[in-house]
Design brief:
heterodimer; A: mainly beta; B: mainly beta; 4-stranded antiparallel sheet; 49% strand
């Protein structure tokens, strides 16, 4: 069964800093790797999806990479802002479902 | 921009009662999912649904759960006899798979179910 782990569990950074969130998965036979943002008590907002044949995707200040062979993905956030404060979830895609990590709770201090 | 919607946003029910959670997926999507997130825990897969039948279900999705697409727009999750441990946020998602190997799922805002 696919297991997804995210480290660190929580991260606090000053505004303007660049940061990296890590995600690892045990089964490399994934279709995609999807990163989400979750605000407290809210739903999941899809940030980036990396297909299994790709190595990275970029959207604005966000860049996600994927290394299937090592079972790792990273989410890089450039020039962090207080509005980036949220929990970031990664999810490895199987054929019919997503396997989620426990998330990294990010706090950006003004 | 099209989005997945869910109703109600919050449902309170007594243990043993039946609840139906409703979702309207994105209109051109063909694949539908339910997930749940118990407070402070991971988002967990419950079930996927395609072509009017279940594609895959997890161990959590036992006989107390059922899903249905009663018409062309709604997708429902029914819990027949709720237990305290069913209290969670329930998320509906949909995807189109319109591009090869594209399984991007779009999530609704969730329904918070509280069983008392």
């Amino acid at each position: 069964k696919q297991e997804v782990t995210q480290i660190p569990a929580a991260l606090s950074v000053p505004e303007g800093e660049n940061l990296v969130l890590n995600c690892s998965f045990t089964d490399s036979a994934i279709y995609n790797l999807q990163w989400f943002r979750q605000d407290p008590g809210k739903g999941l907002t899809s940030l980036l999806l990396i297909q299994s044949s790709q190595r990275e995707q970029t959207s604005g200040r966000l860049n996600a990479s994927l290394d299937k062979s090592s079972g790792r993905s990273t989410l890089y956030i450039a020039a962090s802002q207080p509005g980036d404060s949220a929990t970031y979830l990664c999810a490895a895609t199987g054929a019919n479902n997503l396997f989620f990590g426990t998330g990294t709770r990010l706090t950006v201090i003004p | 921009e099209p989005e997945v919607t869910q109703t109600p946003s919050h449902q309170v029910t007594q243990m043993g009662q039946e609840v139906i959670l409703r979702c309207v997926p994105i209109s051109n999507h063909l694949y539908f999912y339910w997930y749940r997130q118990i407070l402070g825990q991971k988002v967990e897969f419950l079930v996927s649904f395609y072509n009017n039948e279940i594609s895959e279900k997890s161990e959590i999705f036992d006989d107390q759960f059922s899903v249905e697409r009663p018409d062309g727009s709604n997708f429902t999750l029914k819990i027949r006899s709720t237990k305290l441990e069913d209290s969670a946020m329930y998320f509906c998602a949909s995807s189109s798979k319109d591009r090869p190997n594209s399984y991007e799922q779009y999530f609704g805002p969730g329904t918070r179910l509280t069983v008392t």
